[in-house]
Specification:
Blueprint lengths: L5 E5 L4 H17 L2 E8 L13 H17 L8 E8 L2 H11 L4 E6 L4 H7 L2 H8 L4 E5 L2 H14 L2
Parallel strand pairs: 1-2, 1-4, 2-3, 4-5
Helix pairs in contact: 3-5
Amino acid sequence: MVRFHTILHPTDFSSNSAEAFHLASALARDCDARLVVVHAVEPAPAVVGEAALVPNELEDLREEARHKLDELEPVDPGVHLETMIRDGPAPAVILDTADDCKADLIVMGTHGRTGIRRLFLGSVAELVLRRAHCPVLTVKEPAHANERSRAFEGAASR
């Protein structure tokens, strides 16, 4: 059996990321591995005529992320959990963190974008898959969660 010592879980706090976190923490428990969770704070690109995020807004994003990271609970309280916030584009943050913490595995959610949306928006998971120096396990949101999401969106649009 493959032995993982350090598992990296990048999170954007979406339901997809929550699913991946549960899997990553279960794997960390089963392998007696360290679980490192990272969140990338990436300033939104400025729109023509609008200013970029000012330092106070970035600090607010970091504070909100810290609060959410502090609320994470692994499937087993014995899991060695480390959390961090790093500034920069998500793919670069994930890849740099994987190298820095010597990750044996990256477990991350994927939003499953396809077609035109993926072409224009790109895919963090795809970039990480292509460039990571360790295995990457991507986790799709379960079908029942997608159905709940569509039902919610349908009700909200009425």
